[in-house]
């Protein structure tokens, strides 16, 4: 039987992050404090969209997977990549990006 593809943005991002980290579903579940006997099934349900975890569980998942929590909820691929890159930018780059964002958001007078 084949694996079910994620139907939610959260599920897709969770699976991507988990695979990138090289952590099996059961190990990820145990790492966030789930019971060993149900850990794999719970993570699978989060990935396939059958269940969505609480924000508290999402934060734990993000911490173990070393991604921002916002990444797990991001439904835009380009923005998701940006969220993953953000910690690796230097202060100057972050400040410049901040100026660019502010200039796009502020109405011109």
Output the CATH homologous superfamily: lambda repressor-like DNA-binding domains
Sequence of secondary-structure elements:
HHHHHHH
- Determine the structural class based on helices, strands and strand pairing: mainly alpha
CATH topology: 434 Repressor (Amino-terminal Domain)
* Helical fraction: 55-70%
Tell me how many strands there are. 0
Overall CATH class: Mainly Alpha
Multimer state: single chain
Number of domains: 1
Stretches where pLDDT falls below 50 for ≥5 residues?
none
Specify the number of helices: 7
The first-to-last residue Cα distance is 60 Å
Give an account of the 3D structure.
There is one protein chain. The longest helix has 15 residues, at 91-105. It is elongated and about 55 Å long. The protein is mostly helical. It has a single domain, classed as lambda repressor-like DNA-binding domains (434 Repressor (Amino-terminal Domain), Orthogonal Bundle), CATH 1.10.260.40. The protein is built from seven helices and no strands.
Task: Write a compact overview of the structure shown.
The chain has seven helices and no strands. By secondary structure, it is an all-alpha fold.
Q: Secondary-structure blueprint of this entry?
A:
Layout: H1 9-21, H2 25-31, H3 39-48, H4 55-65, H5 69-73, H6 77-85, H7 91-105
Helix pairs in contact: 1-3, 2-3
Give the key terms.
0% strand, elongated, 109 residues, 434 Repressor (Amino-terminal Domain)
């Amino acid at each position: 039987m084949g694996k079910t593809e994620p139907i939610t943005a959260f599920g897709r991002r969770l699976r991507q992050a988990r695979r990138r980290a090289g952590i099996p579903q059961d190990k990820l579940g145990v790492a966030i404090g789930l019971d060993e006997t149900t850990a794999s099934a719970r993570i699978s349900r989060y990935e396939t969209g059958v269940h969505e975890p609480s924000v508290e569980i999402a934060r734990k998942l993000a911490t173990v997977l070393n991604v921002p929590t916002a990444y797990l909820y991001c439904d835009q691929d380009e923005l998701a990549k940006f969220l993953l890159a953000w910690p690796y930018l230097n202060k100057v780059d972050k400040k410049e990006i901040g100026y660019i964002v502010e200039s796009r958001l502020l109405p011109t007078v």
